[in-house]
């Protein structure tokens, strides 16, 4: 960024530690958001040996989303996760052969037809949550984040790989794969010095994860079933139409862990935040329930009816606007260029796009901090520039699991609000944890079965 000096930076920068004193290492993304409100649509922040340009403004973002000039940046946190997910879809470099191969092979595994096949498994997971809540609801407050994580793990485990993490039976104890994944995720965002100190532990977590995934794949192979009803089945049997190749074994292992890592926390975050907002907005909740009542009544929520729940879907979209589970994504310049007509960036220069900032840009209108699902009424969506809304990233490296997540979350939310009153205590003030994805913390709700 040749004109870095002209880009604002946080106040109180010190010559030796730069912005370190003002940073928040527990909630770094929320501090960035505060900075964006103080400093405007673009700012830069530095720590010794490290610097980053952060963009939140819609006009600048429009340029960053131009795929002819920018692409996904695979350095920083993504690079640190390569030992876990290698050339899997999320951590693959843009020009890596296995990214294009896997992208082509796996797209059909996220199509509407594929989702139709996953639907009964997702519904089974939701049924387990309903049973769990029905049994335990009288025992006192429920940790909503924990329940959503159990549900999301079960959904991806079952619909993805026919694997049962026993997340509702563990009594709060995670399957070793899950604890290793959570630890490895936390490790990947540690400063390099702390990473060095914990490298041996990190290796052991990766070994545990690889062992579990290899077992799942081996078991499926040995079973001789050619089922294509889950992601793993499709991954094992599909052949690339262009090259005729299948996914190499090691890459398949990387993809399984990629889907787990990319899918469980994000989907759980969406479900938790949406239930929080619905509880705090009774008018929206009533409209959502009325629609469920009219559309499905007491019947099973089948694949097609999930798409007819438009009021709920608008609540989901608005939740993703206000608290997009993934706080940011990174873009790098493919050539020397200019953004917003005034900020020069050289080839290789990168920026973090802070989704929370973009999603609360003044172009959204007044009251950008308010939960208002009507923003997603079709006529209002049509009147808005599409680049204002990017919860799933952008371009060829955007989220491949988008429809999977939206379907899973909408189904789960429909069933929970139909079956339960989920009440957030009046005195709860939203506090959000960070660890790869945003998640409301200490959110203990009361859950009562509806008749
Ligand atoms: C990529 C968000 C759910 C799999 C991404 C990206 C975002 C995102 C922002 C782009 C990251 C970047 O540019 O570096 C979300 C959100 C989700 C969600 C908000 C839920 C609400 C899922 C699920 C899966 C998944 C359920 C899989 C089952 C992936 C993969 C990529 C990705 C594989 C990398 C795609 C590629 O580079 O080819 N996601 N995601 N995501 N997501 Fe998701």
Structure, described:
The protein is of the alpha+beta class and 451 residues long. 50% of the residues lie in helices and 11% in strands. The chain contains 18 helices and 12 strands. It has helices spanning 28-39, 58-64, 76-80, 82-85, 97-106, 112-136, 144-161, 176-188, 192-197, 199-223, 231-237, 249-280, 282-295, 303-308, 310-322, 355-358, 378-382, 402-419, and strands at 42-47, 50-55, 70-72, 142-143, 328-333, 337-339, 343-345, 350-354, 420-423, 432-434, 438-440, 444-449. The strands form 4 sheets. A 5-stranded mixed sheet has the order 1-2-8-5-3. A hairpin with a 3-residue loop joins strand 6 and strand 7 (343-345). Helix 6 (112-136) runs antiparallel to helix 7. The radius of gyration is 22 Å and the shape is globular. The mean pLDDT is 93. It binds protoporphyrin IX containing FE (HEM). Residues 72, 89-90, 103, 156, 258-259, 262-263, 266-267, 270, 324-326, 329, 391-393, 397-401, 404-405 line the site of protoporphyrin IX containing FE (HEM).
Provide the spatial order of strands within the biggest beta sheet: 1-2-8-5-3
End-to-end CA span: 60 Å
Order of helices and strands: HEEHEHHHHEHHHHHHHHHEEEEHHHEEEE
Count of helical stretches: 18
- Fraction in helix: 40-55%
Global outline: globular
**What share of residues are in beta strands?**
5-15%
Largest sheet: 5 strands, mixed
**CA-atom Rg in angstroms:** 22 Å
Mean pLDDT: 93
């Amino acid at each position: 960024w040749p004109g870095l000096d002209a880009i604002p930076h946080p106040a109180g920068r010190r010559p030796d530690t730069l912005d370190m004193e003002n940073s928040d290492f527990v909630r770094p993304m929320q501090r960035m958001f505060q900075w964006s409100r103080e400093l405007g649509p673009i700012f830069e922040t530095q720590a010794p040996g490290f610097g980053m340009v952060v963009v939140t403004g819609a006009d600048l973002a429009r340029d960053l989303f131009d795929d002819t000039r920018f692409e996904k940046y695979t350095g920083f946190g993504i690079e640190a996760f390569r030992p876990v997910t290698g050339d899997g879809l999320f951590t693959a470099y843009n020009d890596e052969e296995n990214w294009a191969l896997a992208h082509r092979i796996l797209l059909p595994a996220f199509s509407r037809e594929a989702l139709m096949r996953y639907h009964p498994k997702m519904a089974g997971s939701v049924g387990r949550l309903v049973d769990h809540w029905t049994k335990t609801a009288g025992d006192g407050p429920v940790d909503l984040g924990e329940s959503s994580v159990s549900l999301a793990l079960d959904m991806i485990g079952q619909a993805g790989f026919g694997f049962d993490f026993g997340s509702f039976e563990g009594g709060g104890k995670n399957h070793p794969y899950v604890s290793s994944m959570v630890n490895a995720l936390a490790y990947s965002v540690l400063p390099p010095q702390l990473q060095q100190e914990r490298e041996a532990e990190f290796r052991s977590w990766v070994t545990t994860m690889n062992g579990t995934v290899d077992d799942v794949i081996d078991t499926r192979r040995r079973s001789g079933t050619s089922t294509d009803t889950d992601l793993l089945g499709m991954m094992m049997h599909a052949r690339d139409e262009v090259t005729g190749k299948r996914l190499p074994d090691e890459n398949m292992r990387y993809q399984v862990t990629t889907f787990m890592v990319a899918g469980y926390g994000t989907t759980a975050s969406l479900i938790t935040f949406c239930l929080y907002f619905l509880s705090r907005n009774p008018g929206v909740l009533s409209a959502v329930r009325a629609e469920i009542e009219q559309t499905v009544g007491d019947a099973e929520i089948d694949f097609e009816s999930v798409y007819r729940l438009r009021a709920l879907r608008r609540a989901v979209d608005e939740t993703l606007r206000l608290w997009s589970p993934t706080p940011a994504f990174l873009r790098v310049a493919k050539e020397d260029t200019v953004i917003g007509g005034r900020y020069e960036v050289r080839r290789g220069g990168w920026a973090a796009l802070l989704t929370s900032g973009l999603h609360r840009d003044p172009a959204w209108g007044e009251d950008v901090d308010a939960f208002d699902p009507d923003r997603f009424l079709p006529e209002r969506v049509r009147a808005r520039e599409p680049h204002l809304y990017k919860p799933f990233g952008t371009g060829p490296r955007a989220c491949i699991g988008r429809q999977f997540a939206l379907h899973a979350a909408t189904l789960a939310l429909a069933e929970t609000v139909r079956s339960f009153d989920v009440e957030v205590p009046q005195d709860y003030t939203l506090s959000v944890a960070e660890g790869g994805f945003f998640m409301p913390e200490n959110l203990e709700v009361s859950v009562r079965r509806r008749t």
